[in-house]
Amino acid sequence: MMVHFLDGTYELFRHYYGRRRFEKDRFDQCKFAPFGAVTGVLHTVLEMIEKGATHLGVATDHVIESFRNRLWPGYKTAQGVERALLAQFHPLEEALAAMGVAVWPMVELEADDALASAARIAAADESVQKVCIWTPDKDLAQCVREDRVVQVDRRGNKILTADGVREKFGVAPGLIPDFLALVGDAADGYPGIPGIGPKTAAQLLNRYGILESFPPGVLRDRDLALRFKDLATLRTDAPLFGDIEELRWRGPTPAFAAYAERLGDARLLQRCLGAPVV
């Protein structure tokens, strides 16, 4: 059995900006297609089901802010995110649930923490042969385990195994939080340690191991680096589901017809009803 976990927040951004670029010369998206990104994500999920996905879940950021904003004042917030995009977060969660898909809207934790937690729970089930985490976010590389738990980058059509993580970042998956602590993550809003780039970070980590084991004097701003590592370390203890069968897609709920009508995409319901149910 293969289990698929999708980064709903990333997919919503991807479809929102992709649709806007496509339609910018045709009409005002916010006026004519207020749920365009939502329908895009739903079609993406249906495509996965049509291609054979039987067990899947979607993680979303119900709110952008999380506990990490208390750890670092510069951590990402909803500031600067377009209102038309923010307005589609909750409708996406509702539509996914109506479509019969397991969805985890995160508040105190982030969607990435939910993906990490889901991967841990699924990997502990011996009936699961492979866990696929669908997101290009580099912090999810810490969840990769050999070729059993992999990261899938839809953009580049790439699958990262543990060897792939080592090739891409220069360190093993378990050292990704330490790596990001040193080099920073602009998307999440923390800068890393000045003067340390990816190559130097990989050399240091491969020589000394985790940041806590660095000898005195090797790393300046050690306390700051450890704070960044805390930001980069995904939490894996979210109680998302207890049985892998909770993730099996059994078709849409009776409420989905109304959601498809609300979203203004008649093809959604037709496609959903025609998708294979195993």
General description of the model:
Helix 3 packs parallel to helix 6 (89-98), helix 9 (176-183) packs across helix 10 (198-208) and helix 9 (176-183) crosses helix 11. This protein has a six-stranded mixed β-sheet, with helices on both faces. It is built from 13 helices and six strands. It has two domains: 2-161 and 235-273, Rossmann fold (3-Layer(aba) Sandwich); 173-232, 5' to 3' exonuclease, C-terminal subdomain (DNA polymerase, domain 1, Orthogonal Bundle), CATH 1.10.150. A hairpin with a 4-residue loop joins strand 5 and strand 6. With 278 residues, it is α/β, with parallel strands linked by helices. It has helices at 8-23, 29-32, 36-50, 68-71, 83-86, 89-98, 111-123, 162-169, 176-183, 198-208, 222-232, 256-263, 266-274, and strands spanning 2-7, 55-61, 102-106, 130-134, 149-153, 158-160. The termini are close together. Helices cover 44% and strands 11% of the residues. The radius of gyration is 20 Å and the shape is globular.
